[in-house]
Amino acid sequence: MSGQPSGPGGPGSRSVSISNGPGGPPSAGMPPQQHMQAQQNPVGGPAGAQPGNQSQQNLNQIVLEYLSKKGYNRTEAMLRKESAHQDADGRPIVTRVEESGGPKYTTAFGVLRTYIEDSLDLYKPELRRLQWPVFVYSYLDLIRDHYIREGEQFFTKFKEPFSREHEDDLRALSAVKLPQHLTESHIAKVYLENKYRLTLSIMAFNNLMQFLESKNPEGGAVVAEIMNIHMELHTVDRAAAGAERSIAAIIARGAVHEDMPAEDEGIPGHNPGSANTDRNAPNVLAKLNLGPMPTEAELQEDVRAELSYRDAKNPPQPGQHSLVDEFEQIIKREPTEDGPTREVVPFPPSLARDVAMEVQKVVEHRDRFRITGRTGGVGPGLTVSMYTFHNTHDSINCLDFSGDNELVAAGMAESYIRVWSMDGSALPPSPHDSSSDRPQSSRRLIGHSGPVYAVSFSPSIASPDPDGPSTASQYLLSCSADKTVRLWSLETWTCLVAYRSHDNPIWDVTWGPQGHYFLTGSGDRTARLWSTDHIEPLKMYVGHDNDVDCVSFHPNNLYVFTGSCDKSVRMWHISTGNALRLFTGHTSNVTAIACSPDGKTLASADDTGAILLWDLEKGRRKKRMRGHGKGGIWSLSWSVESTVLVSGGADGTVRVWDVLLETSDSSGKVVAEGGAGAKIDAGKAGAGAVVKAGGKAKDIGITADQISAFPTKKSPVYKVQFTRMNLVLAGGAYMP
């Protein structure tokens, strides 16, 4: 019987009627009481059909008429009021967006975006900064409230405008799909546990709040609630906020750099430059000592005596300073009010090598090629010596040049280091070499058990006196994925020490300007200070929310800098370990940092191709320079005068920048990208144009402070370095 088809009046219909008996389940969509009435009235007359066909609206009307006839006016009025908010089926009518559940965020964000795009151009740049935090918190609230499908639709619909500035954050947010992910995702916890700080001008804020109040039922209340719960909004007067927020500055910037966040925007919010992220922190910056480290008294006397001997042996040319006069001018600038004392950072006693190095520094400082700022719109002409490595099979991770311009070292993905002489001459032999071994122009240093991510030569300088103390590099530092730093002797070509302390791969290592100290940055989110005579780190710098990718010293050795993929740069006191400055404004991972020789300006670069200059004393951003294509700027270097900056990166170009030129960010010019051309000068390029990088649709504006661009064929530039004579060295690997 179960195999027979069910037809009208057949076994199928009979079994259904039996299953709907008193012991079986009721029919779908029909309450049990109505089902019993349907069985008692099989004829289907009016008495049996009326309850099932009667709508809620008709029932309400019948009751209202009854109440009216009986004179129950109060009850009638209350029922009419309740019925006005119900549809024909008795369901409540939604009149406010915030009552609609998941779709309310889509409607509210659309209302906000429409308002911003329809507002005056004067307010658009700052109002557009509001969209990102509202987008993030709307999506996280949808996931938290279990609106999974609505959240995915919201994310897909509105993510596109943020793909350029917040590419990494969008990728991380896309993995948050369930409520339990909110406690597992790093980015979700960062946003939910902190308030997003944003600064608006008073007029823009007032106009926004008036609009949200007028659109309260259409979604304004939803946006206002997000701003109230998840954001920390600050208002400023344009006149009091300075030139950066002036009307003229906003118009000059145009739409080219609307993706550049303010210095105090984001998470954690902070006063510009201040490393104190407390919401109630005073807007007072710690005082810095940015002057040069004074020279040791005994060292000064020894250097002065040696310079006097050289002046007597080789008198200066007409119009040229004597070496003693040049030295006196240098040390005259040292005892300044903002200079540190030698007691703060202890150094070992000076040796004959230190005297020889200081003497040669004075000679090169006097005889250097002097670089000044632009004169009449024409920038200084620079020479770049490019060293290209062939047949590397993409195995080189990093490069470094020695200070005496004699050696170049490369860290390899195969866990070893190779050192070459830059002129092809034979390197000093190792004590382990036999007499029959042929001289070699390169050496392998083997010891790491993971890819080598950074190498750094100890301070050195070229010495013209072969009979004097050696001033060549004595040591080489390397760091690796094996979580160790190794110190190599360049005299014996062996590993002297392996330093262990970090818990994750070490991304960068660099020597201090005087040697003796060195600094590391790691994937464990810390930077650590070391000295060559201690196996353990001397100081740990903790505060970044993500990997520390690049590290650098201040020229006076009193401060250190760290750049992280949390998009921030921090300045630390070398002895106390306190964070003194926090610079935010990058839209992607910070990939390179370098402090100017005068100690007043810091340059930082990211993997979007942007370079930001920071005033260390004021803690404020000076300007942003654009020109590199996307992929990362891997190296920065300053000229001796701190007037010119050189950069190199993944786009295969070396670019020269005028640091002193004040420009509007929106000006630009056409520059070749990775082509096999010659040097391209800024003066020969037309202003107001843009460059298409790599044939992609997105244009890259070239700021007017770019002096020159030196494109390679297909060689990403790993290292750029100014010599003390203001020659630029660059190195990269050819990748056909």
UniProtKB/TrEMBL annotation:
BP-aspect Gene Ontology terms: transcription initiation at RNA polymerase II promoter
InterPro entries: LisH (IPR006594), TFIID_NTD2 (IPR007582), TFIID_NTD2_sf (IPR037264), WD40/YVTN_repeat-like_dom_sf (IPR015943), WD40_PAC1 (IPR020472), WD40_repeat_CS (IPR019775), WD40_repeat_dom_sf (IPR036322), WD40_rpt (IPR001680)
UniProt feature, compositional bias: Gly residues: 1-12
Nucleus among keywords: yes
Ranges for domain TFIID subunit TAF5 NTD2: 102-231
Molecular function terms from GO: RNA polymerase II general transcription initiation factor activity; translation initiation factor activity
Protein localization: Nucleus
Protein family according to the UniProt entry: Belongs to the WD repeat TAF5 family.
Organism, scientific name: Mytilinidion resinicola
Chain spans, region Disordered: 1-54
GO cellular component: transcription factor TFIID complex
UniProt xrefs under Pfam families: LisH, TFIID_NTD2, WD40
WD repeats: 389-423, 445-498, 499-540, 541-582, 583-624, 633-659
PROSITE patterns documented for this protein: LISH, WD_REPEATS_1, WD_REPEATS_2, WD_REPEATS_REGION
Keyword Protein biosynthesis: yes
Protein name in the entry: Transcription initiation factor TFIID, subunit TAF5
Keywords noted in UniProt: Initiation factor, Nucleus, Protein biosynthesis, Repeat, Transcription, Transcription regulation, WD repeat
